[in-house]
Write a structure and sequence with these properties.
The protein has about 220 residues and is α+β, with helices and mostly antiparallel strands. It is built from 8 helices and 6 strands. The protein has a 4-stranded antiparallel sheet, sandwiched between helices. It is elongated and about 100 Å long.
């Protein structure tokens, strides 16, 4: 009786007969087909990788403001919404600073828009310099910028605002601009000052105007 292992094994004579009866051209065609299938699969994977990369790059472009090199309003809003969701889940706080570049319009009108563009870039650089690596800077529009201070309280955000004001003094001393400019900053803290981006921004905006002696209704 033939052992089970021997029954399951392929008969060498059968393999040899198949090799003799199947033309070499068929084997060659099969090898080429397998090779081409592998190439096609690799090409499809590469195309998918490029598509995902382009989609990511497009998303980054859509959410950024190329002039100051920071997030645009949409990108900044999405960043704040993500932080809101995280803060709610983990019972944490964060601060939002609303920054107004006072004098930007005058710079544009008297020294040209290139000078105004440089002031925008300088302000963005100044805010990044004052913040930490995981804080977020965005341009909300025109002469308004935002600063998301992750896991910051009202007291700790006040320290950062003081740092910004000190840097403004240093930057103005070395700035080539002849027109006077400054940054006015209002802050709001989650959850004490609001539970949504709109509420926090409205509170920060009101406090910004209060610094100018203007009371918003």
């Amino acid at each position: 009786m033939t052992p089970p292992a021997a029954q399951g094994a392929a008969d060498p004579s059968v393999i040899q007969r198949i090799e003799r009866e199947v033309p070499g051209a068929v084997w060659l065609a099969l090898a080429i087909a397998l090779f081409l299938a592998g190439i096609a699969g690799l090409a499809a994977w590469h195309a998918s990788l490029l598509a995902r990369r382009r989609a990511k790059e497009f998303q980054e472009v859509a959410l950024s403001d190329p002039l100051p090199g920071v997030l645009n309003r949409r990108g900044f809003t999405e960043a704040v919404e993500r932080e809101l969701d995280r803060a709610r889940r983990h019972d944490q706080q964060f601060a939002l600073a609303f920054v107004d570049i006072r004098g930007l319009k005058t710079v544009n009108d008297t020294e040209g828009h290139l000078a105004g563009d440089e002031l925008l870039r300088e302000t963005a650089s100044l805010l990044r310099e004052s913040a930490r690596a995981h804080d977020v800077v965005g341009r909300l529009g025109g002469d308004e910028m935002g600063l998301l201070l992750v896991e910051q309280s009202a007291d700790s955000s006040a320290v950062i605002v003081s740092r910004i004001r000190a840097l403004v003094t240093l930057h103005r001393a070395t700035s080539p601009l002849h027109t006077d400019w400054d940054l006015t900053i209002g802050t709001a803290t989650y959850p004490q000052d609001g539970d949504t981006f709109e509420e926090l921004l409205r509170t920060a905006d009101r406090r910004l105007y209060e610094q100018r002696g203007i009371a918003l209704r």
